[in-house]
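Colleagues,

For the teaching module next term, I've prepared a clean inverse folding example: a structure given as C-alpha cells, and then the sequence designed for it. I'd like students to try predicting residues themselves before seeing the answer, so please don't circulate the second half yet.
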C-alpha cells in the first residue's frame, strides 16, 4: 500500500510538471525509478496515463480521471497520518499552490507566506501572481484569491472582505489639474484604467452616474495603475484595501468620497471541490485569513 501511495505522489507530480526528470528530482527518484514506477502504475490500472515522445509529454484523458482519484486518496492518507504527528512541523508538509492578483499578494500574503516558509521546513508554497483569472483545476491550484467574479463552476468559495472601489489621485496631480467635485467633471481629467473598460458606473448620493472614459491610459496590472497615479499620471479607481497604505502616507488622496465604482463586491478565497481538504491547505488558509483580519481591522476600521 505504501508503494502505491508513493506511485500516486509521483504520478501527481508528473501531471503537474509534465516532466519525468523534474518530477523525479523533486521526489528524490532517478529517471530509471521514475519510468519503472509509471510503468507499474499503468500496468496496475490497465491504462495509458501519459503520451510520450522524445520531446513532449501529455497526460491522457484516462490519466486525468486517475489524477482526480489520486488527489482524493493522497488527501485522505495525509489526513490519517497527520492525526498521529506529534509535531505540527511534521504534520504540515507538502506543496500548496496559491493564485492571487499582484495587489492582494502585496497587501495580504507577504508576511504570512514568509512566516509559513520559515516555520515549516517540509512545506512548499508556489505563488502564482496574475491579475487575470488562473484556472483552478487545470493549474492544480489549492487556494485562489479572487475579487468579485468567481469565473468557474464546481468550486467552493468563502467571502473574506468587502471590496470597495474608490477614486484616487496624487496630491501633485490635483495641484496641477484641480480636484473634480462632480462625476461629470472627470471628462476633463487624465484617466488611468484597467483594460477593456470604456466607462465607469459611479454609485453614490442615491444615483448611478455613467462616466465615459476619455483621455485614458489602459493597463492590465492593478498595482501599476496605483504607481502611475502616485507618479501624478492621472485619476484611477482602485480597491480601497489595496491603496489605503498609500493614502495614509499622503501619496494618494481619495476623490468624490461619496461615490464608489459600482456596488461593493467581495474578495473571496476559491478552492477546488474536494471530499477531504489536506491539512496543509487548511493550515495555510487559516494563517492567511488571520492575517487578513488583522490587517483590515488596523487599516480599514
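(Answer key — instructors only)
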Amino acid at each position: 500500500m505504501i508503494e502505491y501511495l508513493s506511485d500516486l505522489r509521483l504520478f501527481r507530480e508528473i501531471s503537474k510538471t509534465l516532466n519525468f526528470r523534474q518530477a523525479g528530482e523533486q521526489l528524490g527518484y532517478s529517471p530509471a525509478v521514475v519510468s519503472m514506477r509509471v510503468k507499474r502504475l499503468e500496468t496496475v490500472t490497465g491504462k495509458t496515463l501519459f503520451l510520450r515522445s522524445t520531446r513532449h509529454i501529455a497526460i491522457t484523458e484516462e490519466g486525468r480521471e486517475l489524477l482526480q482519484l489520486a488527489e482524493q486518496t493522497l488527501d485522505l492518507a495525509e489526513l490519517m497520518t497527520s492525526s498521529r504527528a506529534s509535531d505540527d512541523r511534521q504534520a504540515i508538509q507538502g506543496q500548496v499552490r496559491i493564485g492571487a492578483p499582484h495587489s492582494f499578494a502585496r497587501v495580504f500574503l507577504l508576511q504570512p507566506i514568509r512566516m509559513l516558509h520559515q516555520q515549516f521546513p517540509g512545506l512548499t508554497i508556489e505563488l502564482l501572481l496574475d491579475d487575470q483569472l488562473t484556472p483552478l483545476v487545470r493549474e492544480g491550484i489549492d487556494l485562489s484569491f479572487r475579487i468579485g467574479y468567481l469565473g468557474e463552476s464546481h468550486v467552493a468559495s468563502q467571502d473574506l472582505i468587502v471590496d470597495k472601489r474608490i477614486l484616487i489621485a496624487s496630491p501633485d496631480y490635483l495641484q496641477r489639474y484641480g480636484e473634480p467635485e462632480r462625476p461629470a467633471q472627470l471628462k476633463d481629467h487624465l484617466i488611468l484604467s484597467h483594460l477593456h473598460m470604456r466607462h465607469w458606473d459611479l454609485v453614490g448620493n442615491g444615483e448611478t452616474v455613467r462616466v465615459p472614459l476619455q483621455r485614458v491610459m489602459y493597463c492590465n496590472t492593478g498595482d501599476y495603475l496605483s504607481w502611475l497615479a502616485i507618479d501624478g499620471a492621472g485619476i484611477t479607481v482602485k480597491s480601497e484595501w489595496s491603496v489605503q497604505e498609500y493614502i495614509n502616507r499622503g501619496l494618494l488622496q481619495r476623490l468624490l468620497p461619496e461615490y464608489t465604482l459600482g456596488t461593493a463586491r467581495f474578495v473571496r478565497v476559491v478552492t477546488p471541490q474536494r471530499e477531504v481538504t489536506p491539512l496543509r491547505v487548511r493550515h495555510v488558509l487559516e494563517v492567511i485569513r488571520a492575517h487578513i483580519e488583522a490587517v483590515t481591522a488596523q487599516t480599514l476600521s
